[in-house]
Automatic annotation (TrEMBL):
Signal peptide: none annotated. Keywords: ATP-binding, GTP-binding, Nucleotide-binding. It comes from Cuneatibacter caecimuris. Pfam families: PapZ_C, RapZ-like_N. It comes from the Bacteria. SUPFAM superfamilies: P-loop containing nucleoside triphosphate hydrolases. ATP binds at residues 8-15. GTP binds at residues 59-62. This is UPF0042 nucleotide-binding protein. GO terms for molecular function: ATP binding; GTP binding.
């Protein structure tokens, strides 16, 4: 029996997560009155119950009754009702942007500023985030990228660390990504741009990849980078970090940075990772120069 409390910041994807869990075979109930949670648990934990997976949506809409939730959660283990908490979160700036795009008002802001509502909500939900078994930061997650993260936890039963890693290639001429946590400069490597037949290609093409990786300095850099990142990840998890953006840059962001970002991503995608992982090439489609006959 799995009893999951799905909660989090408004606009962070709680409703989407509930729909996905429902598709995975969970019996989902959204916004159930807090006074009925123990009754719900009693029914589902009953040996004769046909329900083996429950996801319960709880959020700021429960209003003043939210203050009762902490007592309810304390009572659950006393009655031998095991539960897990999934907390969906996102950066404040991201939440504000989502509200502005949908032209919806925050449930706590009324006619005031969305930022004020978010601030109040964070304060009210802080105890849930601290108790959460899983925290998923959706700031950089597409909807389709959330599903595999949920499947890892609630279907495959894999160990989950609340960390999502983005490996990002970019071009320094277009600026360093503002959300970078770690930035690596690979402009010291020989540049395929100056090889005419390679110029219109990218690091996703075998010819460019083979050109870059033929140099010992590229292989040594890749190995040292992979080793360092593997050392850092568990320490970031221990610190409680939820998002990590590793940016790898070259001049234009189309050849060397793409090649090394792909190499790092492949090394980290060993199938055993307990963290989320994605790959992005920010500038790969910029400055495309193709010689025409």
């Amino acid at each position: 029996m799995r009893f999951v409390v799905v909660t989090g910041m408004s606009g962070a994807g709680k409703s989407t997560a509930l729909k996905m869990l429902e598709d995975m075979g969970y019996y989902c109930v959204d916004n159930l009155p807090i006074s009925l949670i123990l009754n719900m648990a009693e029914l589902t934990f009953d040996q004769d119950s046909a329900i083996t997976r429950v996801a319960l949506g709880i959020d700021i809409r429960n209003g003043k009754a939210l203050s009762e939730l902490e007592k309810v959660l304390e009572e659950m283990p006393r009655r031998h009702y095991d539960y897990e908490i999934l907390f969906l979160d996102a950066a404040d700036a991201c939440l504000v942007k989502r509200y502005k795009e949908t032209r919806r008002s925050h449930p706590l802001s009324g006619q005031g500023r969305v930022e004020d509502g978010i601030f109040q909500e964070r304060r009210k939900l802080e105890f849930l985030r601290e108790q959460a078994d899983y925290v998923i930061d959706t700031s950089k997650l597409l909807t389709r990228e959330l599903r595999p993260e949920l499947e890892k936890i609630f279907i495959q039963g894999r160990e989950f660390q609340s960390l999502f890693v983005t490996v990002l290639s970019f071009g320094f001429k277009h600026g360093i990504p503002e959300d970078s946590d770690l930035v690596f400069d690979v402009r010291f490597l020989p540049n395929p741009y100056y090889v005419e037949e390679l110029r219109p290609l990218t690091g996703n093409d075998a010819a460019v990849r083979n050109y870059v990786m033929q140099f010992d300095m590229a292989k040594i850099f890749r190995d040292k980078l992979v080793d360092m990142v593997r050392f850092l990840l568990p320490n970031y998890v221990r610190e409680g970090k939820n998002q990590l953006v590793i940016s790898i840059g070259c001049t234009g962001g189309r050849h060397r940075s793409v090649t090394l970002a792909n190499a790092l991503y492949e090394a980290l995608s060993d199938g055993e990772a307990s963290y989320g992982l994605k790959l992005e090439h920010r500038d790969i489609d910029r400055d495309v120069h193709i010689k025409k006959n």
